[in-house]
Amino acid sequence: MKKLLLASLCFVMLFTTQIYAQTRTITGTITSKDDGLPIPGATVRINGTTSGTQTDVNGKYTLKVSSNSILHIAFIGYTPQDIAVGTRTVVNVVLVSSSKQLGEIVVTGLGISKAKKTIGYAQTTVRNEEINQVSPINALGGLEGKVAGVNISSVSGTAGGSTKVILRGYTSITGSNQPLFVIDGVPLNNSTPGASDNFDFGNNANDIDPNLVDNISFLKGSAASAIYGSRGSNGVVIITTKKGKTGKPVIDFSTSATLTDVAFVYKPQEIFGQGWDAHFVLGENGNWGPKYDGVMRPWGSIVDNSQLLRPFSFIPNNVTNSFDTGVELNNNLTVSGGSENTTYIFSYGNIFSNGILPGNVDDYTRNNASVKISSSYKDFSVDASLNYVNRNGQFAATGQGPTGVGTTFYENILQIPGNIPIKDLRDYTNKFFNVDNYYTPWAENPYYNLYENGSRAKSDRVYGNVNLSYKFTPWFTLQLQQGADVTNFGDKIWYNVNAPAPGSWGAGANTEGGVRKPDVGAVTEGNYQLFEYDTKLQGLFVKRFNNNFDINGLIGANYNDRGGRTLITGVEGLAIPGFFNISNTSNKPTSSEAEAHQRLLGFYAQATLGYRDYLYLTVTGHNDITSTLGINHNSYFYPGANLAYILSQGLDLKSSALSYAKLRASYGETGSDTGPYNIYNVLAATNVGLVFGNLAFPFQGVPGFTVSNTLLNADLRPERVREYELGGEFRFFNDRIGLDATYYSRTRKDQILSVPIAPSTGYTHEFVNFGAVRDRGVEIAFNATPVKSKNVTWDFNYTFTHSRSIVTQLPAGLDKVILNIDGYGGQFVAVQGQPLGLLQAPVPAYDSQGHIIVDSQGFPKPAAANGTYGTFQHDFVMGFSNNVKYKDFTLSFTFEWDKGGKFYSGTADLFNFVGADPRTTYNDRRPWVVPNSVQEVTDASGKVTGYKENTTQITEANVDDYYYTNSNKAQAWSRDILDRSFVKLRQVSLNYNIPKSVAHKIGAQHATFGVYGRNLLTWLPAANHVVDPEVSNYGTDLASEYGEFRTAPPLRYYGATLKVTF
Amino acid sequence: MKIKDIKLKAIFTVAIACASVGCKKITDINVSPNNPSITAATPQVLFPSGVMSTAAGVGGELDIIGGIWGQYWTESTTASQFRTIDAYNLQRQDFNATYSQLFAGALPDYQLAITKAKASGQNGYVLMATVMKAYSYEVLVDLYDQVPYTQALQGASNLQPKFDDGYTVYKGLLAEIDAALANPGSIAAADQKTDFLFNGDISKWIQFANTLKLKMYLRMVNAKPAEAEAGVKALYTAGGNFLQTDAAVNVFTDATDQRNPLYAYTVFNLGAVDLRASNTFVSWLKANNDPRTVKYFGTANPTPIDQGFYNAPQQAYPSYYTATAPALSATDPVYFISTAESYFLQAEAALRYGVGDPAALFNSGVKAAFAQYGLAAPSGGVYTYPNSSDFQTNLRAIIYQKWASFPNSHCIEGFFDQERTGYPERSAVYSTNQNYVAGEWVYSKNGVTGGKFPKRLVFPDLERSTNSNTPAEVPITTPVWWGLPNN
Question: Is the pLDDT of residue A16 over 70?
Answer without folding.
Answer: no
